[in-house]
Amino acid sequence: xxxxxxxxxxxxxxxxxxxxxxxxxxxxxxxxxxxxxxxxxxxxxxxxxxxxxxxxxxxxxxxxxxxxxxxxxxxxxxxxxxxxxxxxxxxxxxxxxxxx
Amino acid sequence: xxxxxxxxxxxxxxxxxxxxxxxxxxxxxxxxxxxxxxxxxxxxxxxxxxxxxxxxxxxxxxxxxxxxxxxxxxxxxxxxxxxxxxxxxxxxxxxxxxxxxxxxxxxxxxxxxxxxxxxxxxxxxxxxxxxxxxxxxxxxxxxxxxxxxxxxxxxxxxxxxxxxxxxxxxxxxxxxxxxxxxxxxxxxxxxxxxxxxxxxxxxxxxxxxxxxxxxxxxxxxxxxxxxxxxxxxxxxxxxxxxxxxxxxxxxxxxxxxxxxxxxxxxxxxxxxxxxxxxxxxxxxxxxxxxxxxxxxxxxxxxxxxxxxxxxxxxxxxxxxxxxxxxxxxxxxxxxxxxxxxxxxxxxxxxxxxxxxxxxxxxxxxxxxxxxxxxxxxxxxxxxxxxxxxxxxxxxxxxxxxxxxxxxxxxxxxxxxxxxxxxxxxxxxxxxxxxxxxxxxxxxxxxxxxxxxxxxxxxxxxxxxxxxxx
Amino acid sequence: xxxxxxxxxxxxxxxxxxxxxxxxxxxxxxxxxxxxxxxxxxxxxxxxxxxxxxxxxxxxxxxxxxxxxxxxxxxxxxxxxxxxxxxxxxxxxxxxxxxxxxxxxxxxxxxxxxxxxxxxxxxxxxxxxxxxxxxxxxxxxxxxxxxxxxxxxxxxxxxxxxxxxxxxxxxxxxxxxxxxxxxxxxxxxxxxxxxxxxxxxxxxxxxxxxxxxxxxxxxxxxxxxxxxxxxxxxxxxxxxxxxxxxxxxxxxxxxxxxxxxxxxxxxxxxxxxxxxxxxxxxxxxxxxxxxxxxxxxxxxxxxxxxxxxxxxxxxxxxxxxxxxxxxxxxxxxxxxxxxxxxxxxxxxxxxxxxxxxxxxxxxxxxxxxxxxxxxxxxxxxxxxxxxxxxxxxxxxxxxxxxxxxxxxxxxxxxxxxxxxxxxxxxxxxxxxxxxxxxxxxxxxxxxxxxxxxxxxxxxxxxxxxxx
Lengths: 100, 469, 467
Ligand SMILES: [Mg+2]
Ligand SMILES: [Zn+2]
Prior knowledge:
The complex is a heterotrimer of chains A (about 100), B (about 475) and C (about 475). Chain B has about 475 residues and is of the alpha+beta class.
């Protein structure tokens, strides 16, 4: 795949700003500073997996190989009130924030 | 300035239940949030389980689109936040989709298909207090959330909006022939299109519903982009949306921030192995496809290849209509001619499909029979067809109601005779060389026949009668 | 038939014979639980009036507690997080339904690290459960509440718990209880609030091996609602209790006795291993060469999956709600900022990072491949042995004061002994093995996929000789 980063174990302020945007987490300056320091330590440990030779090794998506689990095309109706757990509702719809 | 268009087409697959849960896919008139369960609402602790039929459907379409089917496929999570996504990720396919590298031929041109994959439909949002750019809040109805979608991604092989329309019509016809799709569903077909003028930045138009609007949105975009370039300005890369009411595209947002989808494999689902046996089994089950049907219609009914293609590629239901009509009316060529020349034109003018119209083979055939029996003229039949599509009343009934019943072309002689007798002044004027008097006489005949007769024929007959005087 | 005994077995027998008045008994148990709650804080939610069981099943009138991340219909299930405060599931987890069908009643929801993110239960959105053996110390995590209650309750009780990377073994070891983490897919995850779906496992914490075998037999089995649930026949694991173990083979992975593990703990565990050897178990050293990489592999996969799982919490459909201000970016960010604790945010950031375009090959995909190597290590080892034996945790339950001084990476390293087995999805059981400074030490008994019966055989005999 293209565009792989060569300095992938480094995380800086610009990157953490981007990540907080992507993950919809507003972080205070203080939090950012603290996380940056901690992440540097953690990524140092993460980087250790570079040492493992994984050439021709298949990724394990689950601990045991699993395949072809599906259901038949049958309709099953849930009898419940889907809006019971929300405060934001109107006309039997979930009320959510505007887009722009 | 060459136009370059590529598309991502989303088609809803007509399974009975949703892609990952047992809710019904058809929610007509049920009211909002009726066909929902913890899974399609993303409630904590719920888990998806994939619908086998949706996989079958996907494989069949991939085969029909001449694709290479992957032996193993996986579902992935595509993460982005949006109020129509119950989990703020969509279960879709990423690096290992259902199928790749196919094509679909339109007018002897191959449109390459990059990939075909299965994913879940998001919810329907209602923007309250404005449109998407100005609303105060949204109301989300998750009846649609989790309906299986087939996403078909093309290469940028289209050179005009018209080609796009033809592609979409043929694609839709293929899907309907495979019985995996129902074009009457509310948002059965949705398109994200990338369009650029050669050498310029490309514009993405998101979420256009139906092929009529897709063609319109792209046509508008061609004009807009050419206008910008002609004025010597640059086109900036952006996402736009199509305002179907005003028939223009509008800027949605400049791409200052790119979402990072952060794909991972969906750990709540397993790998799917698509074996050769599975594919062979589906091949056996697959109904007749449009190309094959076109050949058959030519052979079986003796119609032109062109006619067969128009009937089949425009809409599968048009082809069904044709074959049904041919069962009860044996002049097949006439059926084809009348369908293409008049019925289809009328449908287009009304902007409805054959299924949305009230036309039925049984009543349509009445029209042809009445012409054969000289009950009505062809000209009258053309008038009646508009009424027929609008009201669904049988042509016989329309003739009766309008008092056209019993009017036969043999009676035209009588009418002409009477008009000539009653308008001696005009007759003599014509005889003395005044051409306009002939028009007057034709008009009188038309008046008396309530415009049911063919003016050309009237002209001929009057001329004949006048010669005899 | 071999007679199996414990407080739980006696109680169920009594109840089935009609010797127990439900209202009277359940009220007493609730009152006791309230007292325990005041002192040790094991609960997020303590039920006021339990639902009287209808079916006279194999677990009739048995009080159980359920970890907060396992959905219980009608009882708040918030996975220890403020962002799910007030969330009342409309359905039972399959494991909960199964034990309800056998006649249990639910006392309450036990406290945990938020979404399972922790080893000491200090990352809860609510209170922090204490270790009943020393309230200055942690009860372990993330199933800290479950182990705390199990350790201190003087009434028959078993806890439904959950482990992703060691969340059953850690609290079981720290509190001197017995904790079983089953084979991945053996117990349905339907109704489990996800941490990292490819590793999450519902298990059991009990006072003794017998109790654990009894409840595990009830909750395990195929469930069509969970695509990763294994389609294999049900087993009655109590049949493996009190069985001869002479001639069984046990491996001792040398990497699990290396630096980072408290010397005193190593010694205690070796003493335990010797006891098993005396019972006729054949002991041999084995190697799990990729152990070192389990921390990285585990945490990368875990945060990648977790960060997507946590996306759904945004104040729109359930859980924490705030006034609907701003556009969706602003509103979702605000709710998530207020609702998630510090560790959850850290893992969201890490996970979002490790699966971003340009990084996911180096982290996410690489970690999945390293997992393959780790699984191969175990598969190779189990070619020659029936079980592996090791310390459950590298330390005894630490004091909260000590935990405060640890950096996040130190926390992650605490799981070094449990991460490999959890990544590989093999079953494991932590059983009390002795004590250091008056605090319990757990011994881990690990087996190959679906070989829980080997674990029960060994553990059942060990429990008897260790005293
Ligand atoms: Mg898509
Ligand atoms: Zn559903």
